[in-house]
Structures are given as C-alpha cells and as structure tokens.
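Extended Data, record Acetylornithine deacetylase/Succinyl-diaminopimelate desuccinylase
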Amino acid sequence: MSDMKEIYDYIDAHADEFVADLQSFVRQPSISAQDIGLRECAELLRDMMHKDGLPAEFHELREGPPVVFGEIKSKSSKKSMLCYSHYDVQPPEPIEAWTHGGPWSAEIVDGVLYGRGATDNKSGVMAFNKAAKAFLAVRGDVPVGLKLLIEGEEEIGSPNLGPWAEQNKELLAADGMHCLDGSLEVGPDVPDVSLGLKSVLFVELVARGARTDVHSLNFPLVPNPVWDLVHCLATIMDRDRNILIDDWAEGIYIPDEDHEGFLADKAARIDFDLLKEELGVDNFVLNREGIDAVRARTYEPTANIQGIVGGYTGKGTKTIVPAEARVRMDFRLIPNIQPDAAAKKLRDHIAAQGFDNIEVRTFERAEEPYKISAKEDISEAIIAAAHEVYGEPPIVNGVSAEGAILRHVWIPCVLTGFANPGCNLHAPDENVHVDKYIQGIKYAAAIMEHFGKS
C-alpha cells in the first residue's frame, strides 16, 4: 500500500524515541506471579499513552492489577479491532544467569535490547501504541477503530480478566482481535500467524504417605510418595509421547485441506537445523523431522512435567521416607478438547489406577481452545500485512499457545509476533533486536490499515 509510506517514514523518524520508551517500560518490574510492580507499571503505561496522545484509563478488577484500556474511534472505517496485550512479565529467576546488567537494565548491546518483557510482551504493547500514534500524527485518524486493552495477569492465566470481560461485553465488542506476542519463524525470518489457540490446563499432583517423614529402615512398611508419583506419571504418558488417559483426544480438531497446506508450507520454509540450535538439542524427540515435527508441535496434545519436589536433596544424605511429594504439570489442549472435561478424565484415570493417595489440584479455570478460518477478515488482513512488511508470505499456523475474553465476547482472534528468533522468552537474557521492534511497529500499523479496508 503506497499510502503507508508516510506512516513508515514517521515510524523511522521517531525510532529513537520509540526505543527509549520501550527501555523505560522494560526497566519497570511487573511480575504477576510474585505481585511485584504491577500497579506501578500500569501507571507508567497510562502516562506513556497519554504522552502519545492516546486515551487510557484504569479498569479495576475484583482482585489484582488494573486493565489499561483506551478506545480510538475511526472517522474513515466502521470496523473496530481489539488490540490485546499485557504488561506483566515472567519471574526473572535465575538472576545470576542474566548478563548485560540484569533483567531490568534494558541495556542495548550491538543493536539488541535485553530485559524481562523485551519481547513478552512489552514490545508488543509499544508496537500497538506507537502505530496508533503514527496514524494520528500523520493522518489525524486511525484506519480502523482501535480498542487498546493491556492487562496485568496474562503470565498467571488471567484469573481476574474473565469476570471483568463478562461485565464489559459492549466495551470489548469488535470485528477482530489480535495479539502481538512472540517471535518470527526460524529460517525465513517472517511472522507466524496463528489462527487459533491451545488451552493450557495446569495441575498439581500431591502424593502423601506417612503422617511425617520416617526413617528409611521403615521403607518396607510405608508408602513412598515419590515412587507413587513416578509410577503414576508413567501411566499418563508413554515413552513415545502417547497420552494414555482414556478418550483424552475425543473430538480433537483434525486439520482440513487448507491447514494441511499450511503445515507443508511451514515444513518447506523453516530451517530445522537453526531451530534445533535455538532449542539446544541435537535431534527432536522421537527423531521427528520435516512435516511430522511441524504437525506434532501444532496439533499434538501435550502432558508436560514442569517440576517435581519431594524428600531431601540438600547437602549430604538423609535416610528418610518422605511424607509428601508434588509434581506440577501443564497439558496443552488442542481444539476441541475442553479443559473441564480433561481435568475430570485425569482425576478418573488416577483413581482407576489405584492411586488413592494422590490428590489432583487444578489451578485457575483454563480457558477453552479455539480455532478460526484463514478466510476471516482479521486472518486475511494480518497475512496481507505480514507479506507487505516482510516481503514474503508469513508462516500460517493452525493453532498456537487468550481465551478469557473470547469465552464472554466471541471475536475472531489471531496471534502473531515480530521478535527475532532467539529472543529467549521466559528465560534469562530475554531480548529483542531494535530493528525487529521498529519493523514490528510497522507490522502493527499495516495490520490496522489492511483490516480497516478489508
């Protein structure tokens, strides 16, 4: 679109300002899991939006930090787009693994900005805001009505967003929704465009034995909760990554012809050797390669063990049989596996296996997975915008890894991102390349333009 040149030129001319604002944003800790700095970050964000001439106000939730929300109406388009992002970040630990000044430095080294939230998701927040600012500065109007929603609990599952969304359906109603979060695909250096989201069911299994730790000479007489967990976990998934719970995949989404084509296109374009290098492995599990690896990553339900705690692991030895052991798991659920039904199947499975000393605890209610068509206006607009800004078609995924809003207000929703591969999401030395950030602002602007005209 030739009429976007002035917008892109404005973004380039203000690149230093936009980078400095991202640095200020990253320097403010905002850790939802530890309740650190959230309101302070929301206040900073609101002030930055006001400075940019954007509307922004707090919407208080029943608990937790506020939602920052601003609506900009368009004079030229009747359509509206909900731009979802979040200002909270993952915990930065282990702190000692960070370089370049630590997790809150926002230091730029060789064109790379380091800090927690640099990619996930503070650069995405800034991309939406700076794209809107560019349109208002150049045209005095935005090409589509914008509803800018930035929440502060995404990294812990948005436990308080759903009830607020249910009470604010009219405020949130839009023709399309998207989220700028994540990185470009390894190899072709183009965005992923995900036309759906998996649900994530978080559980904790708690195994109990004797009333208290007992001397290990009593091992023949008392249960060992750690062994019970080990045996229980082996009944949930086998070594070939098959989930063994009865009817776990009942009703699962089967890719249609279009999405089989997306899988083949992705397999042909991504660099698997670079992906292995980024992940730090010599081979993918089960020696998966090509389209099989892509299909598994996109459409395979998972049963991941996050961590196990039990007994004594300190200095020296301690001859005990522990009284308790715990394991944290996350199950990624493909459409149309429903989280409540999946949790019940897990409980029934563990009971049927005879592990009556293991309690299954679920965390905040998981949101349903969803899937949309590549032919939705928002899908076509984002695919066209990615092609325009990055010079070739994006990688289109069937589903990826936001549902608290969609459960109450159905909006066709797409997830895409612009950070560099190797951005270390959720890990030490999270980063974003400055040039990718500026390009990401142009990407956000192009999405707004294409969607307004679609």
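Summary. The two ends are 13 Å apart (CA to CA).
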